[in-house]
Specification:
Layout lengths: L7 H4 L12 H12 L6 E4 L6 H13 L3 H4 E4 L7 H13 L9 E5 L7 H14 L3 E7 L7 H4 L3 E4 L5 H15 L5 H11 L3 H13 L11 H8 L4 H13 L2 H15 L3 H13 L6 H19 L4 H15 L11
Parallel strand pairs: 1-4, 1-5, 2-3, 3-4
This protein binds adenosine-5'-triphosphate and magnesium ion.
Length: 334
Amino acid sequence: MSRESLPWVEKYRPSSLDDVYGQGEIVSVLHKFIQENRLPHLLFYGPPGTGKTSTIVALAREIYGKNYSHMVLELNASDDRGIDVVRNQIKEFASTRQIFSRGFKLVILDEADAMTNAAQNALRRIIEKYTKNTRFCILANYSHKLTPALQSRCTRFRFQPLPEDAIKRRIANVLVHEHLRVSEDAVQALIKLSKGDMRRVLNVLQASKATLGDDESDEVSTDTIYECCGAARPADLRKILKSILEEDWNTAYYTLHKIRQEQGLALIDLIEGIMEILDQYELQHEQTRINLCMKLADLEYAISKGGDSKIQSSALIGVVKTCFENEVLEAQPA
Ligand SMILES: Nc1ncnc2c1ncn2[C@@H]1O[C@H](COP(=O)(O)OP(=O)(O)OP(=O)(O)O)[C@@H](O)[C@H]1O
Ligand SMILES: [Mg+2]
């Protein structure tokens, strides 16, 4: 497949450590390890789309160059990773002789938090046994899902959600490559909605490009970004809130339902959006905010457990209405 036809998350995967944005400290420590030829076992953990897989692959490419395929074993969650598979594959890989280059081999265990505890326990012996000529890099979203014994064998690096300026620089870069025009507001909205997940940014950008016609002067608008993210637009959220607070129950329900249908919004995204808008409200009683947060959290939980969306949207209106009963609204943002 040509590079042009790749999904953007692959097309724009960092090819070297210097291409990894927003993880400066980690990258500089890794550079140091390479220079001193002293790579410890590594543990990368953090939220999705922050560059864990990309960073270790880039690191391996820098160390091994064209010998990559002989020197690196990548195992991910989609592979069968029972104890025996792990043991055998790693054993076979680590114990074959290195013809092409000297130095250690690298085993990348991607999505290791999906491994069973038994498999993780088997790993600790394996790690110790092959430390002489093999380094392990364990990648996970949650470090608490890894057994402590495994954690203590590795040098830990936490990948933060990408900072806004790093995402902004990366977007600018991609836009130039793709001859894509995105309005300033839309870029800002995308940065906010992505919450530091670069994979999400790239997917949304690619989807939004597909909405444009052939005219090169067309620009991606803020609305398109919200649509591609499946997120509610702030204007719609304010409209819903206003209706809940100022109109009777039936009208509020109708407004909410209509906007949800028109925009194809999930109730859970709506609740998240409403939470954010409410953050900007100045409330007279702190208790109002506390009640709201607790009750919205309950609602969110109920929906995630499969609660009926009609009942839950009624509950949403009820929650907001009752919480605001004693509250005189002041200084609402426009
Ligand atoms: N720090 C970054 N700098 C530049 N691009 C990035 C960065 N992080 C992620 N990306 C982009 O997002 C895509 C996904 O990144 P990657 O696979 O490295 O994420 P991950 O941290 O391993 O996520 P997951 O936890 O879901 O496996 C990459 O192909 C790359 O294009
Ligand atoms: Mg990954």
